[in-house]
Design goal:
42% of the residues lie in helices and 13% in strands. The chain contains 19 helices and 21 strands.
């Protein structure tokens, strides 16, 4: 596919992720290579244009003329018909910055702008410098020995991280610039808009020197090879670029509108599933869910859609809206009674601090439970406690030399995606003695750093007091349902602990968190279904990543072919 064919399919290519910015860059690449508009043998050759530029510059720097001839003669790249290749400085002269003493700053009603890099970020200065935070008069310019550069000069940052922003700004009136800026005043023989395209097409980070504080050097920039087209072709190039950039604006706006509509549709679908109308029957809601799942690939076009979908599935699961209730299932209240009996057998007596069902205030619960469900707290359905790491400093090497006992930290929990498979280090027996080992299957919940991240240990491990451990009662097959609940409640965990006004999470708050507990058999159905839906989300996420990667590769391949030299 050549450039002409590619431009004919411009709108279709714009569908690829990040395509419009890449297409803008592609337009500039075509423009500066002479591939955007046709060459006209009747145009005055650029060689004659260059002579006029040299004549204009002959009143100035003779050295720059010699360099222009040398670079044009030895240019390594071929140029189109009637073009010539020259070093950048052959097309104009440097606009040099000056120091700006503080006692001269602060005026804004003088004749000339005094521009800094920060002024390039002011509203209205996206291309043309129409406003400034400082101004000076001719006397101040003379005092500071600051050059006043004419309108049309193109300036850019020359020091520090601002170079990477690749900002290019055009002066609208005579202005001075500070010494963090550099600019080029192009010859009046050149189309100023074409000159702006040339500088915009260059990535100055490729020419910067220094690592701690990168900088641009004139001696390097002035030798950048530039293809100079005839002046008539410059005008045609500018007109075509303006046309195509306007098309990019339209494509970008259309793309944003499509994404907005998709977001709205996805949000509306989620809302319908999560908060159905009051007259919606359970069967109708399940039908809505089936319809939504069938069209899931169309609705999930971005990672954030899939993230919202995961959260919805979890929310439906713990509200009893994901699976059908079965009146034959043994109730959660009976399950809690059996757990309490099991604890009595183990403890012989109830601890004074034990939480009982009578403590649950049904007027302050987050939502109404389905039939057969019950509210419970972590201490009622298992063993709950903080990790231990008593020794200080915690990184004392005497705790780890020759270690064999895995130590899980908050980062391991945060990265676990529900199942903890990594550990940060290993305690030796000395380290273990000041800590505590929890068995595989323990649910870990972070209460520091990233609050309420969760995951289930896939191996026996220790963890510090920034992690809380929960071992589910032996009556449960695993802690998976509780891990799904923590994931669901993470964003609004305090909603499930209505008795507290604190904004941080600690063991006391977690002890008070209300868990919507289904009958045991329904838990199994819920966990199996959520596992299935999470796997589906994983699959959609992988497909989305693959599709986006393939689209980017295809776009790059097409652009590379279109930009390839014609032999």
């Amino acid at each position: 596919m050549n450039a002409t064919q590619l431009l004919a399919h411009f709108d279709r290519l714009a569908e690829a992720p990040g395509a419009v910015p890449r297409l803008r860059r592609f337009i500039l690449d075509l423009a500066v290579r002479g591939k955007l508009v046709e060459q006209d043998a009747g145009d005055e050759p650029a060689a004659k244009l260059l002579k006029r530029i040299q004549t204009e510059k002959s009143k100035g720097d003779k050295r720059q003329i010699a360099e222009a001839k040398f670079a044009a003669r030895d240019a390594p790249c071929s140029v189109p018909l009637n073009w010539v290749q020259v070093p950048l400085i052959a097309l104009g002269s440097w606009a040099i910055g000056a120091g700006f003493p503080k006692n001269e700053q602060g005026l804004n009603d003088c004749e000339y702008f005094f521009l800094k890099v920060s002024d390039m970020n002011l509203p209205g200065n996206e291309k043309y410098m129409t406003t400034s935070q400082n101004s000076i008069d001719a006397d101040a310019a003379k005092r500071m020995r600051a050059n006043l550069h004419p309108a049309g000069t193109i300036i850019f940052p020359k020091i520090g991280g601002a170079i990477a922003t690749n900002k290019r700004r055009i002066l609208t009136k005579g202005s001075a610039i500070d010494n963090n800026c550099l600019g080029i005043t192009f010859s009046r023989e050149i189309d100023g808009d074409w000159a702006y395209l040339i500088l915009t097409s260059l990535d100055f980070t490729q020419y910067q020197v220094g690592t701690a504080v990168p900088a641009l050097q004139q001696a390097i920039l002035e030798q950048i090879a530039i293809g100079l087209p005839p002046i008539a072709e410059q005008h045609r190039i500018v007109a075509k670029v303006d046309e195509l950039m306007a098309l990019c604006d339209q494509l970008e706006a259309a793309q944003q509108e499509r994404e907005r509509r998709r977001d709205h549709l996805a949000a509306a679908s989620l809302q319908r599933l999560n908060q159905p109308a009051s007259d919606t029957t359970p069967e109708a809601q399940r039908e809505h869910a089936r319809f939504h799942l069938h069209h899931l690939p169309r609705l999930t076009t971005r990672p954030e859609h899939i993230k919202a979908m995961r959260q919805l599935f979890l929310d439906l699961a713990v509200r009893g809206k994901l699976m059908r209730q079965d009146s034959n299932d043994e109730s959660a209240a009976e399950l809690l009674r059996k757990i309490q009996q099991e604890k009595l057998k183990q403890q012989k007596s109830v601890r004074k601090n034990a939480v009982t069902l009578s403590d649950v205030d049904l007027t302050s619960v987050p939502f109404e439970l389905p039939s057969g469900w019950a509210w419970a707290r972590f201490p009622e359905v298992g063993t709950f406690g903080r990790g231990k790491s008593k020794h200080r400093p915690r990184n004392d090497t005497s705790l780890f030399v020759g270690g064999t006992h895995p130590l899980v930290q908050t980062g391991d929990v945060a990265r676990s995606k529900g199942v903890i498979k990594t550990f940060t280090s290993k305690y030796n027996d000395v380290g273990l003695a000041q800590s505590m080992k929890w068995p595989a299957g323990t649910l870990c919940i972070t209460i520091a750093a990233n609050i309420a991240d969760s995951g289930i240990l896939s191996f026996d491990a220790c963890f510090p007091d920034s992690v809380v451990g929960f071992k589910a009662s032996p009556l449960f097959d695993s802690a998976r349902y509780f891990e799904y609940f923590v994931r669901t409640a993470k964003a609004n965990l305090l909603e499930f602990a209505p008795a507290t006004a604190q904004k941080n999470i600690n063991l006391e708050i977690l002890n008070a968190v209300l868990i919507p507990l289904p009958p045991l058999v329904e838990q199994h159905r819920i966990v199996a279904k959520v596992d299935e839906l999470m796997a589906l989300c994983d699959q959609l996420e992988a497909q989305l990543t693959t599709t986006q990667t393939d689209s980017r590769r295809l776009l790059e391949a097409v652009l590379e072919e279109a930009l390839a030299p014609v032999h």
